[in-house]
Amino acid sequence: MALTSKQNAAGLGLLLFCLLLLPLVIWGLLYDLSNQQQQVASGHQLIIHSDMHGLAFGGGIFCLVIIVWVATRLIIHKFSLHTQSLEKKFNRIFSGLLLGSFGLMLASYYGVSHYWENQMAAKGYQSCPTTTLLFTRVTYSAWTQNPALCFDSDVKRIVTRGSWNESVQVEQMLQQRARQQEARRQFLLQEEQLKRTRNTQS
Fold first, then answer.
1. What percent of the chain clears pLDDT 90, i.e. is strictly above it?
2. 69: confidence class by pLDDT, cuts 50, 70, 90
């Protein structure tokens, strides 16, 4: 049975959408992996972990299977190559591939996340409780070398969306805080020395 013009248009639309989506998924996956690697290697006191690249890997495979499925189906119907037995075999193969790629998407989500969690734990990081930072961002979590930062009001003010830049902002804020504390310590030390000098002179 030949495809109607509406079915052809829908198939071509889906094919075009997937062809445009696949490069974006691959770019997003590589970008996220690069950022995650930089985060872990940065040594920042607080870093952001995203589970999205785990989904992106399986999502890319899923998108690729759909491209092959739609393209093959359009070619078969375009040149009237289909038979009933071929149609059943075709549907059975691609149904299995679609289910398999969907399962791979879930497996990669947990597998890749587990890998990065082990990498961060090996660097001395531990996850902040979900109720402290990024609790509204399902696929993001904050990891820190200092658990007190999870409850720090200044950190909570900065870390709201889970972007990589927020980790840099937290590090800059902590460095500025350390400089202020050092300046205060030096000031108090000088005050103490002045008091001792006055007491000695008197």
1. 24
2. confident
Cβ atoms of residues 11 and 74 within 8 Å? yes
The torsion region of residue 124 among left (phi > 0), alpha (psi -120 to 50) and beta comes to left
> For the packed helices 84-122 and 5-42, what is the interaxial angle rounded to 10 degrees?
10
Token pair for residue 173? Answer: 């804020």
Residue 81's SS3 state is coil
Count the alpha carbons within 13 Å of 123 in the hemisphere toward its beta carbon: 22
- Structure token digits, residue 144: 């820190």
Domain range list for the chain:
5-201
Residue 122 φ/ψ region, left for φ over 0, alpha for ψ in the -120 to 50 degree band, beta for the rest: alpha
The type of residue at 178 is A
Distances (CA, A) of 63 to 21, 47, 76: 8, 30, 20
Q: Stretch 153-182: mean pLDDT, rounded?
A: 91
pLDDT, one tens digit per residue, over 182-196 is 888 888 888 888 888
In whole angstroms, give the CA distance from residue 118 to residue 120. Answer: 5
Strand partners, 49: 141
CA 125 to chain centre: 17
At 47, which helix (H) or strand (E)?
strand 46-50
Q: For 115-143, give the secondary structure using H, E and C.
A: HHHHHHHHCCCEECCCCCCCCCCCCEEEE
Residue 12 in contact with residue 74, Cβ under 8 Å? Answer: yes
